Amino acid sequence: MEKGQKFVRFKDWRSESSLSTEQNDPDSNEFHKGEVKLNPVTDGANKSMASRRKVLDPQGSLLQKWNKIFVITCFLAISVDPLFLYIPVINEQRKCLDLSGKLLKIIACVLRTFFDIFYVLRIIFKFRTGFIAPSSRVFGRGELVDDPVAIAKKYLSSYFIIDILSIIPLPQMAILAAIAIPQYSAPHMAKMMLKYIIIAQYVPRSLRIYPLYKEVTRTSGILTETAWAGAAFNLFLYILASHVVGSFWYMFSVESEVRCWHRQLKNTTFSHDSFISCGVKDNPTVLSLLNRPISCPHKDPDDTTDPTFFNFGIFMEALKPGLVNSDTDFTDKIYYSFWWGLRSVSSVGQNLQTSTYSGEITFAIFISISVLVLFTSLIGNMQKYLQSTTVRVEEMRIKRRDAEHWMSHRMLPDYLKERVRRYDQYKWQKNRGVEEETLIRNLPKDLRRDIKRHLCLDLLKKVPMFENMNKQLLDAMCDRLRPVLYTEKSDIIREGDPVDEMLFIMRGILATATTNGGRTGFFNSFVLKAGDFCGEELLTWALDPNTSPNLPISTRTVQTISEVEAFALTAEDLNLVASQFRRLINSKQLQHTFRQDLIYISFPFLCKNISLHFLDSVTQFYSLQWRTWAACFIQATWRRYLKKKAKRSLRAAEDRLRAFANADGSSPSIGAVIYASRFSSNLLRSLRRSKRNKMPHTRKVLPLLPRKPSEPDFTTKEK
Questions:
Q1: Per residue in 582-592, pLDDT tens?
Q2: What are the residue ranges spanned by the domains of the chain?
Q3: Burial classification of residue 155, based on how many CB atoms lie within 10 Å of its CB (0-12 exposed, 13-18 middle, 19 or more buried)
Q4: Helix 670-701 × helix 624-661 angle, to 10°
Q5: Which CATH architecture has domain 436-594?
Q6: What is the mean pLDDT of residues 492-498?
């Protein structure tokens, strides 16, 4: 190693994820300049490390999303498979078994291949998905096994065989084989192959859904995000069952017609399957035998007494209207078969009137048993999903009923009952029964802090005292804020009551007023809106190191004008945060923050006549208490100024008149002197009368000046 290298950094390749975060961190570039990476000893180890980085976490968000996609595609895949059962058709004119046109074959094969691709992706994902070691589940989540060999062994010993059997393209191969083999036996071979292939593959394709569904619900808890989506999913299962039952009913209807033909040709030389396939040339003898009125008539058993009559049973409804004929459009076949399956599933097979044929009876028994099992599951799931949407409504109804009984038992007056009902209604409209505080309290500390910061930080910074507060203290205050709701005309704080909390308004309008202790002729009011706060007496009380342990007394009454949603900070929490705030910010900065230039904004016309020292003494932080006191103080000062001005004017007028009356020799006549004397007397009398009228008003104003709010003593140091 060179001398310039100061350190060696060892990387834990086992803990690295597939996407390195170090490459995207610009702050770590300087650190990487001096590091020495130790290369693996062998190429095999390097390949092993690279392969382990590609292992997927079974509880990761990426795999959870893909698992939900796989569940949906599995259900869609088993809904596509019944389309192959509609390929065999009956040619009624030629009395033979045929295959449908190319369009249905192409649609069925393409859709089946498309959904099989998702099965292949699922197999690839399983070979790359780790698992939790059972021995490590004693504490916590457990250790993730990321060894590819162990993962492959576990998958090969569990569901690998089922997955392989599910994706083998046997229906597509059956269609290709029917095209390749000689035409005289193609329809019959295709019908038999498709029937047994679909039945055989339906078992593994259906069984694979259950463990995949359990895996999704185990990792994410739910398959659908909303209750209505869950109900719709269960309804889809009901529709899927009807579609599957209808498709098999169509296939067995075709078989019943072929079985009747075999019965009519049983004792002849034309009983081989090739004679009832449309691939060979029409045989007149076969047509004459099958076209007889008594051969295979599509009649109800009650309409004939012939003992040799062939009873088609539950398949008569498909044969009589010609549903299985080759000239019927395949969409009509699918829709009518689905309708028959829906009726049978809805009635649990009770409407099925079967013949004595064992295969038909077995099919009816299968419908009844499978539908009973399906109903048991679907009814429970549907009830669970639908009740989840109304459970909170039911809880609210029970709480309201209990509240009504309690209010009646305590004989509360009607206006109090109405206020209780209004509060419950407003609380329900706001959060729909969700206990917001409980929900946030159950979250991790960091997530709870981020949510509270998002909800409350802007409101806290509306208070000038909190603008420069330390980030940790702001987070502590946000964490202690609790949401509160108030209905219209509610008294939040009353004048003269102790202030026990500070409110930060989110929504609504409040009116705050004071009468200066109930004095006659004094009234001051403000309107508070979203973003404002009240209960600021607590802030002064909490910031003063020498404050009394008793809570401050409110100087204002705060009443809601509309419904109000706010956050509350209790006196105990505010006192704790304020004590820490004093330690982080020096006294001068705190005092500078505490004083604001509100008078410059509210009373600009007075700024020229009032000294800056006076402004600094009366303009405290944006508090209604200080603003009210400042306004009253300015009004009193302005009246004193007007009084002094009136006195100066009166004194100047008296001096001028006295000088005019005592003038010697300058008067032109004795009459002018007498007139001037009378004029001065009248003027002095009017000025004295004006003085007497103004003096009592001034004396009334000065005593009405409210008490100056207390100001914290920042010079005193806490012990």
A1: 665 545 555 55
A2: 13-47, 55-135+147-223, 235-264+297-411, 436-594, 643-704
A3: middle
A4: 160
A5: Sandwich (2.60)
A6: 84
